[in-house]
Batch of 2 targets.
Target 1
Amino acid sequence: MKKIVFYGEGSVGVSIDNDRLLIKKLGGKSPDVTLLFPIMDAAYPDWKKEGEKLHRGRINPWKITVHRGLSGAKDFRLRYLEDENFGYFRTGGVIHVSMYERLNWDIIFTGWLGDFVPIVAEMVNEYPAMVQEGIRLAVSDGDFEDWKQPGVTSGLKENIEKISRAREIMMKI
């Protein structure tokens, strides 16, 4: 499933495929952190329920770390223990919030939907205004069927020839 979500100052693409989530800035200004819930609700209304279900099924211990930069930017990371004996952990996902409280990385999030939900849960503690109701955003399913592939003729030559033949026929009549 791929959706394009439009907000006042720009647009983001949201794709969910086999429980893998991709949120990508497509154009305009970076979205404000408070728009993350409305963007996800518009693109995929069941994201909270599905993400929580996946998260509860995880098999490894996990934690959220928040790195605070000197500028005020924050990185929210989910880390999970791959091997408890050696303390070996991996990063499941990261969401960066700028000092201006914008989601200003081109790839806002990429990873497992089950990792997205606990990251967002921690973000809500820092930015309670994220939880808001009633914001409606425009959504497009993206019409990818009619797009021409690179290297295919533009059709200009063919259309000119068609019009020239039609004119020749009209002149004969």
Note: The radius of gyration is 23 Å.
Target 2
Amino acid sequence: MTLRGTSAITATLLLLVAACGSEQPSDTPESVLSALAKAGNDRDDETIRKLVCPEEWREDLTFAATKSAAVDEDPNLKDLTYRFTDSGVKDKTDTTATGRLDVEVEGVPDGSSSVLDRLAAPLPIALYSPDQNIGLVKRDGGWVACR
């Protein structure tokens, strides 16, 4: 066997080991909820797009778009941020579950909160039911967040 052949086998084995040992974010409702909390804390709109139902995704509900709209309404909201906590999954079946993400809104000076009441919230907050739960559904073999 040549050195070149050995390198190709080594690279293939490394790829197989990496693929077998990693759980995709959509493998379980728990992993989706955890990934949503992390993406929300990181304001990672692209990851959030991958974790929500395609019909729920809207560019105007990204962190960038909603913060821009808030600052346009009230420049005092320039430090607006959200802090998400994964509070677990309940009511799990083979195809549905209910997740809860707690959120703290930070960087809102006194007198500016009324602006946020008028504006759309970013995803994943836009998916919240009145009791701050998020529906999780299994589609095409993977889990996503929906209303």
Note: The two ends are 56 Å apart (CA to CA).
